[in-house]
């Protein structure tokens, strides 16, 4: 087809200036998954070591075996139908697409991108000879496969953060589905509906939510119309697609600030999934979709000021997660942790810090089990555990129970020290160690163990100081650590040392005030005045004369200086 010329030259080659992928192997073929991952520079991911990942690997091996069989049959001419070379390529491309979808489903997007490129090249070869105005049933089947590969390619790009690139491929796929549905609406209307939704989601991700609305409504309308014409026995799949479409549209409306409309469509999404879930004997089949819809409903309820409804939605979501965990804990425990964390965040946001402690304690227990017992646990798993510790710190502090977090703070410090040695990633883990030491110091202060608190806060400042010197963006958290060290030293009676640390705090705040005067000049003024008191009472000097403390005037013309 003439319309496919640019794509054909990009992925298949032919002619000067073409962009054939360097990662594509011989035409229409695919090597083993491990070899392709190596060629792509991708490190193995832990997902394939989980139970559902192992099942995925088996399916991938099955498709790879099919590809080998098709190659052999094609080479020998051993096909019962005419055109064996063409026939073999059709099946090879189909198997490639299936492998790519398996990788997309478990989040291996970099690996999938390489395989989709091969499948896309194969589909383009099959479609390139199609006559523009004379489509056969086989031509439509090949074009449908091409559109599917374009959408898979766009999905990989989206998950890799390349949304604008993905949009072009989604639009190409959408144009193909429009033509297919015009030729045979009974066969291709459902594909067109999903293409509307996929294009709308991509537009929303690219910040074009207003443009996405018509596509969302178009896809939803087709699904609703199609659902009315199906019997109850065939409606579960359609209801799932419709429920997902309602949820995506609700999220788009939330991004546009249309919260009441978002609430309405989130409710519709939950209703569809509840209908499916109540009629399924296997709760894992549609439980994740129901959970995501409840999450969207909770968010929409909160934004509409209906916090009790939001809490109820979160509790239902957590109950769904618990039922999923009973069926497959390795696969669904992480979902439960996310649900509990979202519930805890909502409770903190509405001021119920004491109630938020329990959910975050359970999150920590889940993350801790994963890090300790799961063979495939990674650096990301340990970072998730550190993040859960920090959420617990906020809860306890807001509930007035700061000292109760000491055991978790000590565990966080120990884990950060171990991770520095294990991963050799100082830039990532030393700031985490510094924050954990700060939490440990805060807990010790609350318990009256001031000498230990000073030691922990001093180490936190020492660890973070090197980063603050190299990166100006680190000055703000460094200043916060310095101010807490000053407070801890004062509380312990070490005023001379507190005065010296306060000098360093003045220097850090001066740099910040130069970057954002309105935000930091009050903090700078407070630290400078504190230094005056230190100098008058203890004779500690080192910042300069009193005249040097007057810094540049604020935009209002006011002069900052000692009073």
At a glance:
The protein is mainly alpha-helical and 563 residues long.
Question: What's the topology here?
Answer:
Layout: H1 5-11, H2 33-39, H3 51-76, H4 84-105, H5 109-127, H6 137-159, H7 163-183, H8 185-205, H9 209-228, H10 235-255, H11 259-278, H12 287-303, H13 307-327, H14 329-349, H15 353-373, H16 379-398, H17 406-423, H18 426-446, H19 450-470, H20 475-492, H21 495-515, H22 517-538
How does this structure look, described?
It comes from Coprinopsis marcescibilis. With 563 residues, this protein is mainly α. Among the domains are: 404-491; 494-563, no CATH class. Helices cover 76% and strands 0% of the residues. The chain contains 22 helices and no strands. Helix 21 (495-515) runs antiparallel to helix 22 (517-538). The radius of gyration is 30 Å and the shape is elongated. It starts with a helix and ends in a 25-residue tail after the last helix.
Number of helices: 22
Strand proportion, as a percent range, falls in under 5%
Quaternary structure state of the chains depicted: single chain
Low-confidence stretches: 1-5, 12-51, 80-84, 542-563
Query: In sequence order, what are the helices and strands, one letter per element?
Result: HHHHHHHHHHHHHHHHHHHHHH
Q: Report mean pLDDT, rounded to a whole number.
A: 79
Structural class: mainly alpha
Strand count = 0
> How far apart are the first and last residues' alpha carbons, in Å?
80 Å
Strand count, sense and barrel status of the largest sheet are:
none
Helix proportion: over 70%
Shape call: elongated
Radius of gyration: 30 Å
């Amino acid at each position: 087809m003439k319309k496919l010329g640019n794509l054909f030259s990009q992925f298949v080659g032919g002619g000067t200036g073409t962009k054939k992928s360097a990662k594509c192997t011989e035409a229409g073929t695919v090597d083993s998954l491990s070899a392709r991952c190596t060629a792509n520079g991708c490190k193995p991911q832990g997902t394939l070591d989980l139970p559902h990942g192992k099942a995925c690997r088996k399916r991938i091996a099955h498709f790879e075996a099919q590809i080998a069989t098709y190659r052999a049959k094609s080479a020998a001419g051993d096909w019962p139908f005419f055109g064996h070379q063409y026939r073999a390529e059709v099946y090879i491309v189909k198997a490639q697409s299936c492998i790519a979808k398996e990788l997309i489903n478990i989040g291996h997007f970099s690996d999938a991108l390489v395989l989709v490129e091969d499948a896309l090249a194969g589909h383009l070869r099959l479609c390139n000879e199609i006559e523009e105005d004379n489509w056969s049933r086989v031509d439509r089947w090949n074009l449908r496969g091409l559109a599917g590969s374009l959408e898979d390619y766009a999905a990989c790009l989206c998950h890799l953060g390349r949304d604008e690139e993905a949009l072009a491929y989604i639009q190409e796929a959408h144009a193909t589905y429009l033509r297919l549905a015009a030729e045979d609406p009974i066969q291709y209307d459902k594909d067109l509906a999903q293409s509307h939704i996929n294009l709308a989601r991509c537009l929303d991700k690219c910040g074009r939510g207003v443009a996405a609305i018509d596509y969302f409504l178009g896809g939803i309308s087709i699904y609703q119309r199609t659902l009315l014409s199906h019997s109850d026995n065939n409606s579960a799949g359609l209801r799932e697609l419709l429920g997902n479409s309602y949820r995506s549209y609700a999220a788009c409306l939330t991004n546009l600030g249309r919260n009441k409309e978002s609430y309405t469509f989130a409710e519709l999404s939950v209703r569809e999934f509840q209908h499916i879930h109540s009629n399924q004997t296997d709760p894992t089949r549609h439980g994740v979709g129901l959970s995501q819809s409840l999450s969207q409903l909770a968010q929409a309820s909160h934004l509409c000021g209906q916090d009790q409804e939001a809490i109820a939605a979160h509790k239902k979501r957590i109950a769904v997660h618990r039922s999923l965990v009973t069926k497959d804990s390795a696969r669904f425990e992480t979902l439960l942790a996310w649900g509990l964390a979202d519930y805890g965040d909502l409770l903190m946001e509405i001021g119920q810090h004491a109630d938020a402690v329990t959910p975050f304690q359970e999150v920590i227990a889940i993350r801790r089990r994963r890090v300790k017992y799961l063979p495939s646990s990674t650096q990301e798993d340990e970072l998730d555990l550190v993040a859960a510790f920090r959420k617990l710190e906020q809860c306890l502090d807001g509930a007035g129970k700061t000292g109760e977090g000491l055991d978790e703070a000590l565990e966080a410090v120990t884990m950060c020290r171990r991770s520095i040695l294990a991963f050799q990633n100082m830039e990532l883990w030393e700031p985490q160690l510094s924050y954990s030491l700060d939490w440990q110091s805060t807990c010790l202060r609350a318990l009256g163990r001031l000498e230990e608190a000073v030691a922990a806060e001093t180490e936190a400042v020492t660890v973070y100081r090197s980063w603050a010197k190299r990166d100006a963006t680190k000055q703000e958290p460094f200043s916060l650590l310095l101010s807490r060290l000053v407070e801890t030293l004062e509380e312990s009676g070490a005023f001379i040392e507190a005065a010296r640390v306060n000098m360093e705090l003045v220097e850090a705040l001066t740099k910040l005030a130069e970057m954002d005067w309105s935000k930091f000049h009050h903090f700078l003024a407070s630290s400078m005045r504190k230094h005056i008191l230190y100098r008058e009472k203890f004779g500690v000097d080192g910042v300069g004369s009193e005249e040097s403390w007057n810094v540049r005037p604020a935009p209002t013309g006011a002069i900052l200086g000692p009073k």
